[in-house]
Structures are given as C-alpha cells and as structure tokens.
Amino acid sequence: MARLARRLVPTTKAVGACFFVRGFEMRVRVNVHGYTLPELLIGLSLGLMVIAAATAAYGVSRQTWSNMAAIDAVHANARIALRKIREHAQIAGAAYLDKSASPNTQLSSNYSAGQPDLQGENGNKADEHVALGHWVNVYDRDCQGNQPKGIQVIRNDFKLNADKELTCKDLSPTSSTYQALAEGVEDFQVRYAQANPAAQTLQWKTADQVSAMSQVLAIEVCLRVASVTTVSNGSTASQGCAGETVAADGRLRRVFRRVITLRNRDGLLP
User: Fold this and answer.
1) With contact defined as beta carbons under 8 Å apart, do 181 and 225 qualify?
2) What are the boundaries of each domain within the chain?
3) Is the Cβ–Cβ distance between 153 and 159 less than 8 Å?
4) CB–CB of 189/124 below 8 Å?
5) What is the 3-state secondary structure (H, E, C) of 188-215?
6) What are the pLDDT digits (tens) for 231-253?
7) Is 63 helix (H, G, I), strand (E, B) or coil?
8) pTM of the predicted model, to two decimals?
C-alpha cells in the first residue's frame, strides 16, 4: 500500500507542468477577443466614406478630361478651317511673273475677268459661302490639296453642309465635289469690308450689300463650333455669330472670328 500511495502522489515536476499548461491556457483565453458591433459599424462607415470620396474624385477627373478633350477638338476644328480660308484669302487675286512675255517679263493680271477672285453669297446657314480665286501659276493646289490639270484659275468655294461640316471644293473643274474640312461647325458667316475711295472709309457689309467685290479689302469670318458629343447637362445658353441666343443642349460651343486682309487689293485707298 505504501508503494501504491507513493505512486499516486504527484511529483514536483508533474505539478509544475500542470500549472504551466493551465497558466498558458488562461493567457490565451485572455488575449483572444473580437470587435464589438459599434467598432464594426464605425469601420464599415469609414470604409464607405473612403470609397465614396474615391468615386467622386474619379467622376470629377473624368468630367474634367471630357471637357478638356471637347475644348481641344473644338479649337482644332476651328483652327483647321480658319487656316485654310486664310491661306487662300491671302493669295486671292495675286499676280504671277509671266516669263513668256516678249521682249521683257511682266506681271500677269490679278485674275481672270470671267472668274473673279472674290465672290460671296449671304443667306441662311446652307446658302452662306465665299469663293476665293487665284492663278494656278501662283499656287497649284486647291483647298483639298489636289493639283488640278487643264485649268488656269483655282476658285475655292467654302460652305456648310447638312452634317454641320465646313466643306470646300474648286469650282473650276466640273467633276469636283465638296469635301469636309472641319466637323461640328454649326454656323459660318462672312462679312466684307468695302472701301469707299471717295470718302476714304471702310464699311462692313454682307455679301448681298456689297456693291462691288473689287472694292473689298478684307473679310471677316465667323465660325460657331460645337463639340460632337455632350459633355454636361447644359444649363447655360450661349451666343452665336450674329448675337443670337443658342439654347444649351450639353455641347460645348465656341465662337471664333478672324479678320483676313486681302493682300492683293492695293491702290483702292491712299
């Protein structure tokens, strides 16, 4: 019995191990814990606020990019159209050096009598146009970049089409067709600065008011260009070339005006 009792009595090592295990379990139980419901709700709310702020920032950035892209496209179309008109207006009626003249070389006439260097028509958006002419020997390319054959005078006619595009073609060849230069052009208006040699004055007129195109010293071109797509809700109206109110429809609009001097109209005024 004494031997059995000695075996049942735990040793010091066994007791220490038992207390160590129990102490470890107690520490584990104390350190392991979760979040309370208010803490979870606060964390969820903060996360949703961060997502909402990021979404709003993305929306603003995308809207800004759309506006910048629309502005760039509008200015690019206006720049192309005005540059092409300016190029051919500045050489309209220019003379060239006739080397075949005998015995001395001489300048040609400014333009062919049957094909004047400046013509215009005033009307609605579909009828308004301006034609600018020059000798082939001055510049052998038309407004489309083509090199016509068998003609002496190039007469580039600029007008709008039904698709809101500024188009042009050379009126001299019978087979020529209008080709688009710029899109999004809603209005195209031209005014003419007619000189009065007797009074030594200039007066801006429309094409139907000009009594003699040979007395015009400059032209004013006005373009109203709109973005192809909508970029906003469109709550603010704008003004057109004639000061008219253009209803807002979400498209970005700009009005461009350029005064172009006809360089070869010298001698009309002192």
Assistant:
1) no
2) 65-261
3) no
4) no
5) EEEEEEEEECCCCEEEEECHHHCCCHHH
6) 877 667 888 998 898 888 888 89
7) helix
8) 0.74
